[in-house]
Write a structure and sequence with these properties.
Shape: globular
Number of domains: 2
Distance between the termini: 24 Å
Strand content: 15-25%
Strand order of the largest sheet: 6-12-11-10-9-7-8
Number of strands: 19
CATH architecture of the largest domain: 3-Layer(aba) Sandwich
Largest sheet: 7 strands, mixed
Radius of gyration: 22 Å
Helix content: 25-40%
CATH superfamily of the largest domain: Type I PLP-dependent aspartate aminotransferase-like (Major domain)
CATH class of the largest domain: Alpha Beta
Structural class: alpha/beta
Bound molecules: pyridoxal-5'-phosphate
CATH topology of the largest domain: Aspartate Aminotransferase, domain 2
Length: 422
């Protein structure tokens, strides 16, 4: 059945709270189009989520009325742009409950955020024989920078193993921590498996040994309430384009006392206090980490996306997404030949699967002909694929604007794939 406004049900939660998905979908103009003559079913939200009209409007308003460089100008437009940009930072602060806005550094996304911590903290703190702990399910963005650092410093990468459901083994994790451990880097939510990791527990165990923790929040912030003070993590990264904001927007949160001790990531304009040919002194936070002209329009857009999220009942959105995930998991698991990869007890967002004797790229291509956008591949998590003994998976990833009817179309298309290959 095609998901039209008439056929989509407004889901009523068991708690009695209604999630009006018909109304929500109207906020996202991209969803109203057809692809290959079929209504688009967008299930690639873990790669990039869609952008609501209010965020598009805010970005256009900046370009139409405020476009100018920030911080440096004394003129009206520059001051307006600066106010909007710094206003977005304050929105981020409140969204993740950071103590201070200067703890929220604007970056292009989680990759840049992790690299900033690797350069700023890692290169200063890690030496020969030291160890860096990451998990077996990390995205390449939280593997490769640390590997580069290990290579440069003669340090060692240690990996927290996971079980066959895609859950980290916490006792084995604790056993990895020792006086040589300089940092732990763990994802909040797995993009490839959907697992929600017990971050509070992971942080507490590292802190017992005095080790700071970086949380890759690329898939956490779009689905879960993030409170960095409650998690007590030392760093937390956000990718705006996975959280209903434009590409080029993102944040790395860091505790002020750590950020202050860190060296800058990039050198250039806006990150200095004084420059002579003999010596440069650096600006304070957050400017020290924001060299050059940033993605002003995109970060203002991130602020607007946060306003949009705050205007929703996020608890109801989360429950709704959980219902969708459970519904899709039940339907897909019931198909003979389909295997779900990632069966952790706590999951959100992503549903990875493989079909016996069919390459995931073929699944993706046939689904695209049906107007259904999913992701097929290794999801920048090749070690995770290896752990589950698959070259790749097909992945449907959900947002609160998806519907059960869209899941039904996904399931019908998967059945079609099986028919084509049988
Ligand atoms: N970490 C995770 C868990 C991700 O899913 C992604 C992107 O897919 C990244 C990091 C990299 O994020 P970005 O491409 O926004 O830098």
């Amino acid at each position: 059945m095609i998901a039209t406004e008439k056929t989509i049900q407004t889901d009523t939660q068991s708690t009695g709270n209604a999630w009006d998905v018909v109304r929500i979908r109207r906020d996202f103009p991209v969803l109203a189009q057809t692809v290959n003559s079929k209504p688009l079913v967008y299930l690639d939200n873990a790669a990039s989520s869609q952008v609501p009209q209010v965020v598009i409007d805010r970005g256009s308003r900046y370009l139409r009325e405020e476009h100018s460089n920030i911080h440096r100008g004394v003129h009206y437009l520059s001051q307006r742009a600066t106010t909007a940009y710094e206003g977005a930072r304050e929105k981020v602060r409140r969204f993740i409950n950071a103590r201070e806005a200067r703890e929220c550094i604007f970056v292009r996304g989680s990759t840049e955020g992790i690299n900033l911590v690797m350069h700023g903290y890692g290169r200063k703190s890690v030496g020969v024989g030291d160890e860096i702990v990451i998990s077996a399910m990390e995205h390449h963005a939280n593997i490769v920078p640390w590997q580069m650092l290990c290579e440069e410093k003669g340090a060692k990468l240690r990996v927290i193993p996971m079980n066959d459901d895609g859950e980290l083994l916490l006792d084995e994790y604790e056993a990895l921590l020792n006086e040589r451990t300089k940092i732990v880097g763990v994802m909040h939510v797995s993009n490839a498996l959907g697992t929600i990791n017990p971050i509070k527990e992971i942080v507490a165990r590292a802190h017992k040994q005095g080790v700071p923790v970086l949380v890759d929040g690329a898939q956490g912030a779009p689905h879960l309430k993030v409170d960095v003070q409650d998690l007590d993590c030392d760093f937390y990264t956000i990718s705006g384009h996975k959280m209903f904001a434009p590409t080029g927007s993102g944040v790395v949160y860091g505790k002020a006392e750590l950020l202050e001790r860190m060296q800058p990531f990039m050198g250039g304009g806006d990150m200095i206090r004084t420059v002579t040919f003999e010596q440069t002194t650096y600006a304070g936070l957050p400017n020290k980490f924001e060299a050059g002209t940033p993605a002003i329009a995109s970060q203002i857009g991130l602020g607007a996306a946060i306003d949009y999220l705050n205007s929703l009942d996020r608890a109801a959105a989360h429950r709704y997404e959980q219902e969708l995930l459970a519904y899709a998991t039940a339907k897909l698991s019931a198909i003979e030949g389909v295997r779900i990869i990632g069966t952790a007890r706590e999951k959100t967002g992503s549903l990875s699967f493989v079909i016996e004797d069919v390459h995931p790229h073929d699944v993706g291509t046939i689904l695209d002909q049906e107007g259904i956008a999913i992701r097929a591949g290794h999801h920048c998590a090749q070690p995770t694929m290896k752990r589950f003994n698959v070259p790749a998976t097909a992945r449907a990833s959900f947002a609160f604007y998806n519907t059960k009817e869209e899941v039904d179309r996904l399931v019908a298309a998967v059945q079609k794939v099986i028919e084509v290959f049988s």
